[in-house]
Amino acid sequence: MTSPFANPNRPGVPPRLPTPPTGWPIGSYATYEEAQRAVDHLAVEDFTVQDVMIVGVDLMLVERITGKLTWSRVLMTGAASGAWFGLFVGLLLTLFSPEPGVTVGPVLTGLITGVFFGLVFAAVGYGSARGKRDFQSASQLVANRYDVLCHPKSAEKGRDLLARLAMRPVNPSS
Fold it and tell me: Which strands form 24-29's sheet, in the order they lie side by side?
């Protein structure tokens, strides 16, 4: 029997194209952590978790401001990211070096070049913004609630298992 949760052409593999969720709701939770706990409980109870999906409802993009951007912060970040990339390229160059062992020349060249280009790209990017975004932030996609959906054939059993979970006290250490 095939599951509506899987790709009909390749069983067990989710579809590649955006596909609306199907199934019957067996639980609804305020946080993703609670929904995960519910699915973990189903797995522990030997429920067929391949028939289950967590669906975020009423999605929101939350952008948390983490700090103010200054020229010094932008240049330091650019130099650091350029240094890492340059170090990586320098180490790759040593792999193809005719001399045995790690030589300092290619690594140092990659590091210096990486720092230079990191500084240039960071300065150009920040300067072109012209003060329109002088802050750093982290974005997160969150939902107002998280529904656990299940294939109709096993929804009743899933609801019963989650009802038993709801009766148990929450253990913060688990």
Answer: 24-29, 135-150, 52-68
Sign for the pseudo-dihedral over CA of 122, 127, 128, 129: positive
Strand partners of residue 103? none
How far apart (Å, rounded) are the C-alpha atoms in residues 50 and 7?
A: 12
Reported as half-sphere exposure (CB side, CA atoms, 13 A), residue 48 has a value of 13
pLDDT in tens, 87-96: 999 988 888 7
Token pair for residue 67? 């700090």
Nearest to 159 by CA among 52, 62, 64, 60: 52
pTM above 0.85, yes or no: no
In the chain, the percentage of residues whose pLDDT exceeds 70 is: 89
